[in-house]
Structures are given as structure tokens and as C-alpha cells.
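Progress report, Aim 2. The chain analyzed during this reporting quarter is listed below.
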Amino acid sequence: IELLVVIAIIAILAAILFPVFAKARERARQTGCSSNLSQIGKAFAMYFDDWDDTLNPFEGYCTWQQPNCGWPNRLRTYNKTVALLQCPSDDHNFSYTLNSYATCNTPHLASEGGLNASATRADIKEPTRMIHVADCPGHGEERIDYTKQQQNAATGDVDIDTNDQKDGNVYGGGNKKTNRPITTPGLNYLYVYWPGRHSGGANNILFMDGHVKSFTDWNPAMMTFYRDGKTAN
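Predicted C-alpha cells for the chain:
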């Protein structure tokens, strides 16, 4: 009987403590993700300094270490830590999406015939609100050898960006809240979605001024995809 009592007590303690440990582990992963984005922001700042504040170019599908293609490949000049590209809470090779409006040669901008090759950081009117890089569903499920150039598309699209994603269109393809979290199979891997992958459905976001913050939902007062903070230009 005493043994059964001990086993019952252990089972009760396990039921209480396991969720606590799981939450603590996820909080640690979320902190690691935030640190990744902070380091990505620092690498971008060095890139912009070297290119007279000109924004990096909008590009198409790029593979790992493909020359002159993909923002992660371009940032390797400034930080070669490949772990920065993978959120600890995500199993994909590449976990973050770049806001397309934070690039030059952006076809999704109507101004200048759809292209703006000379776009600079000065064109960003509200850098504290403009999203730069954020959590996304991720891409690349096949194991990747980061020491080599990858030609296999299954290892993932390096140049993940939001394309023409609009403010508020962050709920599984619309602007109305759904129960489809960012981990839902079939979602566009390029976009930012809520609920996010972190505790409480949060996403981590790097802003153009370099600060990183976690949000459990879209907040129009504190974030935007657009350069002027209002419209898609």
C-alpha cells in the first residue's frame, strides 16, 4: 500500500511539474529566437553601412550559399553563425521572413514602375514600427549541410520574404482571426501568421530600428509592413 501511495504521489507531481518544465523550455527557446533576430538586425546594420544605407535587393528563390542571392547569404559576410537562421522552436532550416517592403528593387511597390533600385533606410518613415524580419512558418525540411552550397530545393528557400503581404493579413490568409497557428501545414511559408509558434501564440519581430519584441497578435499601433507606415505606396 505504501508503494502505491508513493507511486501516486510521484504521478501527481509529474502531472504538475511537466507542464511547468515545458513552459520553461519554450520560454528559453523564445529567448533564443529573440537573440537570433537581434543578431540578424546587427548584421543588417553593417550591411547597410557598407552599401551607403541602400536596402538589400528583393530576390526570388535562392538556395544556401548561392552567390549574390538571398538575404541570409548576403549577411554571412557579417555573421557566419548559421544557427541564427533557425528558430529554436522550429524544425525547418530557415525560420524567418524578411519584409519585402524593406528591400530595393521591390516589384510589390507601385511607385517608379514597381522598382525602386535606390531605396535607402531614409525611405523608412517609422523605423520603430516597420517590421524588418519576423517568425514565419519556415522552409526546408531536408537536412542541410551548411558547409556546402546546396542546389537541392528541398533544403529550403534561403530568401524567405513576405512578398505582397498586407497589414493585418496575418491570420492564415485573411484579416480575420482564425484558429490556424503558424505551424498549420499548407500555410504560405513566406508570411507572418498569428497565432505564432511561441508561448501564448507569440511571434518575435525585429524592427527596422533594430529592436526585437514579442507579440501575441497583430498590433497596428506598433507594427506595419509599409515604408510610410500607412499604405503600400
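The radius of gyration is 20 Å. The longest strand covers residues 131-139. These observations will guide the mutagenesis work planned for the next reporting period.
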